[in-house]
Design brief:
alpha+beta
Length: about 180
């Protein structure tokens, strides 16, 4: 029995390593505190109308599943929590945008078995200062991570979608407040 113990420990450690680091890294409240300094910023909803659905479908590569999207804001800063499919499971991202520019991207909840490395700052820092260009593409590329291609693509689509949503809310609120 004692000779089998090291083998059993090895199998347990390999099994736990194979699971990767899937899990919840940050709650919504923690994300909002990090983004705004408190967890009670004003919130609103943007309805996914036909125009926005067409833009979202182009950005995401599929029609969005939701009819509306909640976001939080304070002044020119907005925060979006977006679920986007990795390979087979949703990955929950938090994206903060200010004045049409990504301030930060966080992985809040990772459910896949591979690609969890996208949660680390060496990857998420690339999204800082990301903007939409006139043709709707992103202002700069995002370097991938070997073995995490689908997770990287999900993060990039989420940032792009958040920028589209932010731009839409800024232009519709300006139109609504115009005389």
């Amino acid at each position: 029995m004692l000779r089998r113990l090291p083998i059993l420990l090895l199998l347990v450690s390999v099994a736990s390593f194979a699971e990767g680091e899937a899990g919840q890294y940050q709650t919504r409240s923690e994300f909002l505190i990090e983004s705004f300094g408190h967890d009670k910023p004003a919130s609103s909803i943007v309805w996914i109308n036909n125009e926005l659905r067409a833009n979202a479908t182009e950005v995401l590569g599929h029609a969005p599943a939701m009819l509306r999207m909640r976001y939080w804001y304070e002044g020119p800063r907005t925060a979006w929590i977006i679920d986007e499919i990795g390979k087979e499971q949703n990955i929950t991202f938090g994206v903060v945008i200010e004045n049409g520019e990504v301030q930060s991207l966080r992985v809040l909840h990772f459910r896949e078995t591979r690609g969890w490395e996208i949660r680390y700052p060496f990857f998420t820092r690339q999204f800082s200062a990301l903007r939409l260009t006139n043709d709707g593409s992103l202002s700069h590329g995002i370097d991938g991570i070997s073995g995490a291609t689908l997770s990287v693509k999900a993060a990039t689509r989420s940032a792009n979608f958040a920028l589209v949503l932010d731009e839409y809310t800024r232009t519709t609120s300006q139109t609504a407040s115009a005389p």
